[in-house]
Predict the 3D structure of the following.
Amino acid sequence: MLTLHSYYRSSAAFRVRIALNLKELEYQQIPVNLLKGEHRLEAHTQRNPQGLVPVLETETGEALAQSMAICEYLEECYPQMPLLPDTPLGRARVRSLAMLVACEMHPLNNLSVLGYLTGTMGVDEATKLAWYHHWIAKGFTALEARLAQDTETGLFCHGDTPTLADVFLVPQMFNAERFNCDLSAYPTLVRIAAHCRELPEFEKAAPAAQPDAV
Amino acid sequence: MLTLHSYYRSSAAFRVRIALNLKELEYQQIPVNLLKGEHRLEAHTQRNPQGLVPVLETETGEALAQSMAICEYLEECYPQMPLLPDTPLGRARVRSLAMLVACEMHPLNNLSVLGYLTGTMGVDEATKLAWYHHWIAKGFTALEARLAQDTETGLFCHGDTPTLADVFLVPQMFNAERFNCDLSAYPTLVRIAAHCRELPEFEKAAPAAQPDAV
């Protein structure tokens, strides 16, 4: 069976849970509590020297890191319910939407970056929140512009079935809501995310539904 | 012909130039001067609402954004000189190494983030440099650990031919050197990058070799 080393609130782990659910794959989840520093213990750094979650252990016991690499692996090994379109241009579009979230938004607002701002740099809470909201607004403005203008956009980010673009969008929307970001300027994103959340595959992957949720 | 909208110093554009060169593809380059704000002009935001480089225009005139999505597109459409291994596990390893650079290092140290730190937040030069060096050290320490321990590491990050892992590593090493980062703790990365730079495909992609270099 597949094993996901995960933390309920990690956006990157959330992405992989959605992908696993959409592909109807059975997996067990082993929590790694980031707040207690369990990701820095040797048990975890042996799996991933970077000390991050998620790590997917394959059926043959190989440990895979980085959510995009894991999703591509799942797509290659478990082709049912494809999460990428069937043309190179379609795949490039979906990957670029997912990468916009993964490379331009999430890295700036994760736990270790916010911790560096308030800890090492000693900035106050208001400055930290302004930072958070700035990168969310910048990324979502670009994403909204692309999704609103592209004819490929459908019920989901690409057409009428979920793809990796939705897998990456939904956890970022959750995160933005948790930090009270105003999402009214992104009607297309809000519409797509609401549609995704009606699906049990997304709902069951949400932070609150995980065994380690507190 | 392929057209790359690019900026000589952009790490992400540098990646795509290496991939294009390794695949021996002919392309023309159109400079977008980030320092002059040309990426915010409508001519460019029409191609990419996010206002980033690189953008690859395909032979049929489609504009593709995000360096990883572009590289995967090139890999699919131009299979010569493969930049991904031939097994799903090998591909997952190479993608996760590339993503470590693309998601954990580069986003924190690009021009707009450094500009936000010194501009909006008003931090001094020393604090900005400490920030830069912190994320380089964190990322390269993890990358060095993985590359030094994995049996798949060869002359390059994965075996003895270049892959997307090298395509992403080399521009990040260039960048770190430009900011005077001490790289002595990363002997495996230094060795691999030195080996890459001996290849004309990497050399011709370097910032100083571009038509818009100043």
Chain A has a mean pLDDT of 96. The radius of gyration of chain A is 17 Å. The CA atoms of residues 115 and 121 of chain A lie 9 Å apart.
